[in-house]
Write a structure and sequence with these properties.
The chain is of the alpha+beta class. It has a single domain, classed as Alpha-Beta Plaits. The protein has eight helices and nine strands. Strands 1, 2, 3, 4, 5, 6, 7, 8 and 9 form a nine-stranded antiparallel sheet that branches. A hairpin with an 8-residue loop joins strand 6 and strand 7. The termini are far apart. The N terminus is likely disordered.
Length: 252
């Protein structure tokens, strides 16, 4: 009797193992989809108390902040911009592109742990993903070109837009894009924030000629797509500078 039970258990065990192995083989591994990268526009404001520190302490805080940026350069590809003189509620901005939220989090954590970081606040911060174009079947992203100026703003469409048939929306967007192509000096970057931040898109425009961007925006106001805009503010005018210059512009 004992021999039969032992034989029965022995025969059943391989079957259970095969089922488990089959389930493991058919369970898909979680992988990050190719082509998706996180984009972050972070706007910093400096506490005026920093300017009252002794000069040696201010210089040390600058150096440690720069070291933190340089240490993470490969993973974040941070680009630095000054808003001193162009806007009163922020002083500078870092534009980063990363493969993961954890990398982004680690970068900003390192910055805030520096001496200068303890004097910084972030009045505005926009998170988005680079995503293939919904209407044109190709990636919407273009690599940063390093123009002198960058204009950034969040963007949300009216809900009526999404009630239109897809082909109608594609036609309207095609006309909208064609209007923008009149200004080849302006490089447009579109990133998507659906579900991961407060807005639907974050748009940025690189150019060496601010007047071209102004005329572009005026022309886009006349397109059919414009009537479906719900929000496109605040708008930030950013000047491309090296990180050292960005911090020098903060004061003595």
């Amino acid at each position: 009797m004992n021999d039969k039970r032992a034989s029965f258990k022995y025969k059943q065990y391989p079957i259970a193992s095969q089922v488990a192995m089959s389930l493991q083989a058919t369970t898909p591994a979680v992988k990050q989809k190719s082509g998706y990268r996180f984009v972050k526009y972070t706007f910093f404001k400096l506490d005026s108390a920093w300017r009252k520190l002794p000069s040696k302490k201010r210089e040390f805080s600058r150096r440690s902040f720069l070291s933190s940026i340089n240490r993470n350069e490969k993973e974040t590809r941070a680009r630095s911009y000054s808003l001193v003189g162009t806007r009163g509620d922020v002083d500078f901005m870092l534009w980063t592109i990363t493969r993961s939220l954890e990398t982004l989090q680690g970068f900003h954590s390192d910055l805030l742990k520096t001496e200068l970081g303890s004097y910084l606040s972030t009045p505005y911060s926009y998170l988005a993903l680079l995503h293939p174009s919904e209407y044109f079947g190709r990636p919407s992203e273009k690599e940063p070109v390093g123009s002198r100026y960058l204009f950034v703003y969040p963007f949300t469409k009216k809900r009526e837009w999404y009630g239109l048939p897809f082909e109608e929306r594609r036609r309207i967007m095609r006309d909208h894009v064609q209007a923008g192509q009149k200004y080849p000096s302006v490089t447009i970057h579109t990133s998507y924030s659906f579900g991961i931040d407060d807005y639907e898109f974050v748009l940025s425009f690189e150019t060496d000629y601010p007047e071209d961007f102004l005329n572009l925006v005026m022309d886009l106001r006349t397109t059919e797509a414009s009537k479906y805009t719900a929000l496109e503010t605040p708008i930030f005018t950013c000047i491309n500078v090296e990180p050292e210059k960005m911090l020098d512009l903060l004061g003595p």
